[in-house]
Specification:
Blueprint (H helix, E strand, L loop, with lengths): L23 H134 L5 H13 L1
């Protein structure tokens, strides 16, 4: 087995430059020079620009949040005004409905009273008609009863009773 450093190349080829011991010190110096130069370029140019961009974004976000809060406050105020006007409209509707209900109830009560008065007048007339008809019928009943009683007595006895006796007996029977 052959042992050799990994920097040596078989066949006499030169080693890979970063691993070459002869050029390592100069490469390290140039690395430090470029690193320091890059550090100062980033520190002087890139970081202030990035800071400015971050500050601008922060201000934009704060402004947008302030606008959003203002718009939210406006919408809350509009919602409150809408709800108040809706409550007022409901109250007016309830008042109007109550007034209409009371008015219709009063009209219905007046119509009921008028109809009741009319029905009472009709009832009184009907009672008078019934009383007159009853009196008339009773007078006819007494005459019919007298004639019928006289005919029954004559048929049973064969002799006609006197009209005054039959009328007295019928009147006595009707009183009971």
């Amino acid at each position: 087995m052959a042992t050799g450093a990994h920097t040596e190349q078989p066949g006499g080829k030169p080693p890979f430059p970063p691993f070459n011991k002869e050029t390592f010190a100069s490469q390290f110096v140039w690395l430090v020079v470029f690193f320091v130069a890059l550090y100062f370029i980033i520190k002087r140019l890139a970081i202030p620009q990035i800071g400015g961009i971050i500050e601008a974004r922060s201000q934009k976000i704060d402004g947008d949040l302030a606008d959003a809060k203002r718009l939210k406050d406006q919408s809350d105020a509009a919602i409150a005004a809408y709800e108040k006007s809706l409550a007022d409209a409901r109250a007016r509707a309830q008042t109007l409905a109550g007034e209409t209900r009371d008015k219709l109830a009063a009209e219905a009560e007046d119509a009921r009273k008028k109809l009741e008065a009319e029905l009472n007048v009709r009832l009184a007339k009907a009672e008078q008609t019934i009383a007159a008809t009853k009196t008339s019928a009773m007078a006819n009943v007494q005459g019919i009863a007298t004639d019928t009683a006289s005919a029954i007595v004559e048929r049973l006895t064969g002799a006609a009773p006197s009209g005054a006796a039959v009328q007295a007996a019928v009147a006595e029977a009707l009183k009971r």
